[in-house]
Amino acid sequence: GLLTLNKMASRKDTELHFEDQQKINEFSRLNLKYHEIKADIKKRKEELDALEDASLMIEESFGENLKIMIGESFIEVDEDTATQYQEAQMESVREHLDVLQDQAEEVEGKMKTLKSHLYAKFGTAINLEEEQLFLILSA
């Protein structure tokens, strides 16, 4: 989700510098990217489930020709060709899933680094938890 910055008067010793604002902004961008990656991971896992279901359908075809969708067209193929196509698609989705999971871990690591820096500087005056980013500043 998006993060918002609220300015509220409370702590007189908390000052927001340009570098701090840059870190807050970077955290916000990374958080958005993280959620986009997680949504893509979910979508790829659903594709993998559908491909596993397709594998069962191929097995149940008992040698009859099958139709596979390539682009926007259905092509009639034999069981071996359908199996090869399904396996290649699964491998492709798995590889993409691995890349996405690596990206998620990398972004999460950067967020943790920024989070620890910002909490060290602002303490309880900042909240970097989901759906909220609050920084309490003096007026």
First-residue to last-residue Cα separation: 28 Å
Oligomer: single chain
Mean pLDDT over the full residue set: 84
Uncertain parts: 1-13
C-alpha Rg (nearest Å): 24 Å
How large is the count of helical segments?
A: 2
What is the string of helix and strand elements?
EHEEHEE
Which structural category fits the helices and strands?
alpha+beta
What form results from the Cα inertia axes?
Answer: rod-shaped
Roughly what percent helix? 55-70%
β-sheet strand percentage: 5-15%
Count of extended strands: 5
> Strands of the biggest beta sheet: in what spatial order?
1-5-4
The description of the largest β-sheet is:
3 strands, mixed
List the keywords.
three-stranded mixed β-sheet; 62% helix; rod-shaped; 2 helices; alpha+beta; 5 strands; two-stranded antiparallel sheet
What does this protein look like?
The protein is of the alpha+beta class and 139 residues long. It has 2 helices and 5 strands. The strands form 2 sheets. A 3-stranded mixed beta sheet has the order 1-5-4. Strand 2 and strand 3 (73-77) form a beta hairpin. It is rod-shaped.
Write the layout of secondary structure elements.
Elements: E1 5-8, H1 18-59, E2 66-70, E3 73-77, H2 79-122, E4 126-127, E5 133-136
Parallel strand pairs: 1-5
Antiparallel strand pairs: 2-3, 4-5
Helix pairs in contact: 1-2
